[in-house]
């Protein structure tokens, strides 16, 4: 389950003996605010002489990432309970946000160590520099030039906005096939055009008012491009 970072603040209920009890703040990773409050009182009851019955939650809010578009290295210190005992562990992950790195950690711990989510206690999460990383799986991304090869190159027809095909809304693998009576442009899977998901009839038309020629497919008149379903 996806984890989200919360900041939870709580305190004891005011009394005559202690009218202004101190506030306790905790950084909690949980799937929602209900679980975040529950985890807060679980940890606070172990650290201080207070519990939910004689306390109150002052604040519970989301913590947003300051630079969500920058790839960062995260070090996570955690403790979890296994079938044989309690273990401390340090793990490293590479992601855009702290919440995403913690989500990776929960899924990784469940897959590699059969650790349940309720038995994993995140003690510390910190962004670390590249020269401080220890794990080879993370250090392999710190080289100067990273290249990724296209194993199956293919020519696609793109439409949308932008010059880069990866920024377009759709990428379509195209090839021609013959349908009884006409040749159409097909995309999908299979060698027989009748097995393809789509059969597209393409022709050029002029967009009214814009004065440009576009590639159209669908139904409608060739002269009126506004009646077509798609303009590519």
UniProtKB/TrEMBL annotation:
<keyword id="KW-0687">Ribonucleoprotein</keyword>
<comment type="subunit">
    <text>Component of the large ribosomal subunit.</text>
</comment>
<keyword id="KW-0689">Ribosomal protein</keyword>
<dbReference type="InterPro" id="IPR028877">
    <property type="entry name" value="Ribosomal_eL20"/>
</dbReference>
<dbReference type="InterPro" id="IPR021138">
    <property type="entry name" value="Ribosomal_eL20_eukaryotes"/>
</dbReference>
<comment type="similarity">
    <text>Belongs to the eukaryotic ribosomal protein eL20 family.</text>
</comment>
<dbReference type="GO" id="GO:0003735">
    <property type="term" value="F:structural constituent of ribosome"/>
</dbReference>
<dbReference type="GO" id="GO:0022625">
    <property type="term" value="C:cytosolic large ribosomal subunit"/>
</dbReference>
<protein>
    <recommendedName>
        <fullName>Large ribosomal subunit protein eL20</fullName>
    </recommendedName>
</protein>
<dbReference type="GO" id="GO:0006412">
    <property type="term" value="P:translation"/>
</dbReference>
<dbReference type="InterPro" id="IPR023573">
    <property type="entry name" value="Ribosomal_eL20_dom"/>
</dbReference>
<feature type="domain" description="Large ribosomal subunit protein eL20">
    <location>
        <begin position="5"/>
        <end position="126"/>
    </location>
</feature>
<dbReference type="Pfam" id="PF01775">
    <property type="entry name" value="Ribosomal_L18A"/>
</dbReference>
<comment type="function">
    <text>Component of the large ribosomal subunit. The ribosome is a large ribonucleoprotein complex responsible for the synthesis of proteins in the cell.</text>
</comment>
């Amino acid at each position: 389950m996806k984890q989200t970072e919360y900041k939870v603040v709580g305190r004891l209920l005011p009394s005559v003996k202690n009218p202004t009890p101190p506030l306790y703040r905790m950084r909690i990773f949980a799937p929602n605010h209900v679980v975040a409050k529950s985890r807060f009182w679980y940890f606070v009851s172990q650290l201080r002489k207070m519990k939910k019955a004689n306390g109150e939650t002052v604040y519970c809010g989301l913590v947003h990432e300051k630079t969500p578009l920058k790839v960062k290295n995260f070090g996570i210190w955690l403790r979890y309970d296994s079938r044989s005992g309690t273990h401390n562990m340090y793990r490293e992950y590479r992601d855009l946000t702290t919440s995403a790195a913690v989500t990776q950690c929960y899924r990784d711990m469940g897959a590699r160590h059969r650790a349940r989510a309720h038995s994993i206690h995140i003690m510390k999460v910190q962004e670390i520099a590249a020269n401080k990383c220890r794990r080879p799986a993370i250090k392999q991304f710190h080289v100067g030039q990273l290249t990724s090869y296209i194993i199956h190159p293919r020519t696609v027809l793109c439409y949308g906005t932008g010059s880069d095909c990866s920024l377009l809304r759709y990428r379509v693998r195209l090839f021609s096939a013959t349908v009884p009576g006409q040749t159409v442009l097909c995309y999908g899977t299979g060698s027989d055009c009748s097995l393809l998901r789509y059969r597209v009839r393409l022709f050029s038309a002029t967009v009214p008012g814009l004065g440009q020629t576009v590639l159209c497919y669908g139904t409608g008149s060739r002269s009126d491009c506004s009646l077509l379903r798609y303009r590519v």
